[in-house]
């Protein structure tokens, strides 16, 4: 796995490799839509693209905004929606995404909902219980936590992002701090739009919290830099929550832990054929 000094370097390398080393592929379906007869749906693709970036303990959001160049302010607002403890679907920030008009046609579920959202996958315990997914009283919504049974897996209740934080607080050196985004239901033929992100794995060693981000599919033009930025923000959010627990008298481990290594594996790294010219344009 290649190590880059920063995200700017990783983005530049990705652009060059998609231009020079990618292969064309034309899948019959894209996000559950038949594109077999649409030549513009052909893609340039790299398989198994992976890299690492040392975060060097840097917790400055302004630094990461400048280095990664996500779609600001949308990426920040969408991240806050993800971690807001409400399993929102559809939420609000999808409308403000630069390609929000394209996303609108995927709201195929009752009530104009998507097949899934990151908010639901971060907070799945009470997903689908209320219209829109508001569960904690924000915006006038009902407070259902404690009054409704949480969703249950084969044997245990669903976990959420707070459970991951709690697990690390109790067991800082755990190898089990994984936040899944791909759920078993995504393999169902009823699910048309599948999550691109598989999950996020966190591990603390030597005073640094590391993140590994496996993602099955990523569009370099529409998603890559936003995905990287929100993964870094998620690590910083988790560190903040762990430190808050310690100020409440629950340990003395995390106050000096810093961001460590960011690693990412992309199964299918791609762009549409008509987007290739954008990669050839200097940033």
What does this protein structure show overall?
Strands 1, 2, 5, 6, 7, 8 and 9 form a seven-stranded mixed β-sheet that branches. A two-stranded antiparallel sheet has the order 3-4. Helix 2 packs antiparallel against helix 7 (224-247) and helix 6 crosses helix 7 (224-247). Helix content is 29%, strand content 21%. With 283 residues, it is α+β, with helices and mostly antiparallel strands. It has a single domain, classed as Thymidylate Synthase, Chain A, CATH 3.30.572.
In short:
The chain has 283 residues and is of the alpha+beta class. 29% of the residues lie in helices and 21% in strands.
CATH homologous superfamily caption: Thymidylate synthase/dCMP hydroxymethylase domain
SSE series: EHEEEEHHHHHEEEHEH
Round the Cα radius of gyration to an integer and report it.
Answer: 19 Å
Total beta strand runs: 9
The quaternary state of the protein chains shown equals single chain
Q: What proportion of the residues is helical, as a percent range? A: 25-40%
- Corresponding CATH architecture: 2-Layer Sandwich
- Overall 3D form: globular
Largest sheet, in brief, is: 7 strands, mixed
Strand content: 15-25%
Keywords:
single chain, 283 residues, alpha+beta, Thymidylate Synthase, Chain A, seven-stranded mixed β-sheet, two-stranded antiparallel sheet, 8 helices, 9 strands, globular
């Amino acid at each position: 796995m290649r190590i880059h000094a920063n995200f700017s370097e990783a983005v530049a390398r990705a652009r060059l490799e998609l231009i020079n080393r990618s292969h064309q592929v034309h899948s019959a379906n894209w996000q559950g839509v038949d594109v077999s007869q649409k030549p513009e749906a052909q893609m340039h693709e790299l398989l198994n693209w992976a890299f690492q970036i040392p975060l060097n303990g840097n917790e400055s959001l302004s630094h990461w905004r400048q280095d990664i160049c996500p779609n600001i302010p949308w990426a920040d607002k969408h991240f806050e929606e993800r971690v807001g403890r409400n399993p929102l679907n559809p939420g609000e920030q999808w409308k403000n995404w630069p390609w929000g008009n394209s996303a609108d046609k995927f709201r195929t579920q009752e009530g104009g909902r998507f097949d899934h959202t990151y908010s639901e996958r971060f907070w799945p315990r009470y997903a689908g219980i209320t219209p829109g997914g508001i569960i904690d009283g924000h915006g006038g919504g009902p407070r259902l936590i404690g009054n409704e049974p949480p969703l249950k897996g084969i044997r245990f209740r669903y976990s959420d992002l707070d459970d991951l934080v709690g697990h690390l607080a109790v067991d800082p050196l755990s190898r089990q701090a994984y936040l899944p985004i791909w759920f078993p239901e995504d393999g169902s033929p009823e699910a048309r739009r599948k999550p691109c992100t598989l999950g996020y794995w966190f591990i603390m060693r030597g005073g640094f919290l590391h993140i590994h981000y496996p993602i099955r599919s990523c569009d370099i033009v529409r998603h890559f830099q936003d995905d990287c930025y929100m993964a870094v923000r998620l690590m910083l959010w988790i560190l903040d929550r762990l430190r808050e627990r310690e100020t409440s008298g629950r340990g003395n481990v995390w106050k000096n832990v810093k961001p460590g290594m960011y690693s990412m594996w992309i199964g299918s790294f791609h762009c549409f054929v008509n987007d290739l010219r954008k990669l050839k344009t200097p940033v």
